[in-house]
Amino acid sequence: MRRAEERFYGGERRSVSEMSQQRTDDMAEVAISEAKPSVGTLSSLLPKLAVTLAVAGVARYLYSAVYQAVINEAWGDVRGQSYALREYLWHGQSVAETMSQLQVSQMRYGPVFFLVTHPLALLGGNDRALELLLLGFAHLCFWLTVYLIDRRFLSSSPWPVRLLFVGVALNYTPILVTLATKTLDMWEMMFIAMGLYLLASPSSWQRRVAGVPVMLGVFAKMMPVLVFAFVVTRSRIAGAIGLFAGAIALTMGHLLYGPVMGWGFLLRVPDIINNRTFPEALWWPNSSLRGIVYKILNGFHLPAGLPRPEWYLAVDPESMAVANAGLVILSVAVLVFVGLKLWRWQPLTELEPIRLLGGFALAVVLVPVFAPFSTEQYYVSSLIAFVFLLRCAQLGHVSRTEGYLALVALFLVGGILPRTVFVLLSGTWLLNMMVQSAPDLMPIEVHLFYGLPGMGLLILTVIVMRVQWRLVQKTPVKPTVAAVGPRLNRLKV
Predict the structure, then answer these.
(1) What is the domain extent for residue 420?
(2) 26 lies in a domain?
(3) pLDDT tens string 425-467
């Protein structure tokens, strides 16, 4: 069992027999690669692709997430709620009084946001300095996430695979948008990655505290709540300790800032959910399943001549009520199915970490799919799903068809190409010109209006569910379907 764990986690201890078997396997792989030119072609193309993607990613990252983020004073939703904290720290105004002046959409973050931003605000001294400090913290969250995922799941992979992951992360448009706008979605992904790193650890004490960062993510922004539910299904102790950590965070927020950012936050959750359900579900960028259904009912039409903040879909109330009821039933059915079929399994030493990764992957894709409102920033954590598929491909659990569909999902969700190039290739700009449904949208916004990221997320969800089901049931890929894994593994030298 120990040797199995070491092989998965990249351990260095190997017996003479294992080393001899490895040399035999390597010789066999060389023979196969020489016999099949396609394997050699992939082996030569993947390193080049990884290097190209990484170089392009560095350029996009420096331009979009650093340069543009610095010169453009864009705070996203963080600006409104941080205003209450700034007024409290710099002018002594009550947080509750300031929060009462804000709209519901401007106060959707929990006490962890205040607890983390508090020292940054003290260091900042003014709004511009605080904005840049929040930007720096978001970048720290990004690189910590990349490190944790690579360390836990890709440390034993060939270098082109690891570089490919970094290249995808640097080109991942949801990440670039989130960094540029300094929103909390990058925090959320970091907390999720920390919980995943701990839960998949061979150390028992690390697994027991895996719920702590996830619960902190819940009380920063509510999105990781399904991830925490998954943690509870795998470890009740981790769930209990996570709840205790959440209680501490609520208590600290209560004592420092008053009930509105303490235990009173729980009373604000229904208002936050209702605001996301209506009217934001009718806002044009919504790419969740609900948003796509609304746009179909609306005929993909935006009112012309109105200012951008008022671009909302006009949907018949009766049709909307029927659609909402159907979506609620569908979401409950999917969650019950996943809970009963995919999240209940017997421990299996070699596959357990990768199956935990699959559970997290399902949780992070199901939330934006079935949420009332989701857009690019909400897809940040979906990068974990692509890491899951990449790791499963190495293990031979991804079929050729699933691999192709995953690439389609990566283009639709991740937007790893520059937006202008993506819009040209997708053809949505031409469609919009022909039907004139949203004439006031910029070309780079059209793909979001037509719900292409949401459609890609639906494809990704189905693939992850299929692969995770095979892992849970220990069912191999059908022999008649070529798997990707053996070819990826032959890249190791």
Answers:
(1) 278-493
(2) no
(3) 777 767 666 666 666 777 678 888 888 899 999 999 999 999 9
Q: Work out the average pLDDT over 83-98.
A: 82
My answer on whether 226 and 291 are in the same domain is no
Quote the pLDDT of residue 314.
Answer: 86
**What per-residue confidence (pLDDT) applies to 73?**
75
Task: Tell me which of 13-22, 31-40, 189-198, 276-285 is least confident.
Answer: 31-40
- Closest of 310, 229, 219, 204 to residue 266, by C-alpha: 219
Cβ neighbour number for residue 418 with a 10 Å cutoff: 17
φ/ψ (deg, to 5) at 262:
-125, -130
Residue 182, phi-psi category: left (phi > 0), alpha (psi -120 to 50), beta (remainder): left
- Convert the pLDDT of each residue in 303-317 to its tens digit: 777 777 678 888 888
CA separation for the pair 303, 398 (Å, rounded):
44
CA geometry: angle 278, 282, 283, nearest 5 deg? 110
Gap between the terminal Cα atoms of the chain: 26
The verdict on residue 1 lying in a domain is: no
Last residue of a domain, one of 226, 257, 277: 277
User: How confident is the model over 346-370, as a mean pLDDT?
Assistant: 88
Name residue 302's beta-bridge partners: none
Q: Position of tokens 């205003």?
A: 83
Count how many domains the chain has.
2
Same domain? For 355 and 425 the reply is yes
Contact 153, 165 (CB under 8 A): no
Inside any domain, residue 28? no
Q: Are 130 and 82 in contact (CB under 8 A)?
A: yes
Structural domain contains residue 4: no
User: Would you say residue 38 has pLDDT above 50?
Assistant: no
**Distance between CA atoms of residues 54 and 47, nearest Å:** 10
Answer with the one of 277, 309, 331 that is the final residue of a domain. Answer: 277
Q: 165: number of CA atoms within 13 Å, CB side?
A: 25
Q: Distances in Å between the alpha carbon of 466 and those of 116, 381, 471? A: 38, 19, 9
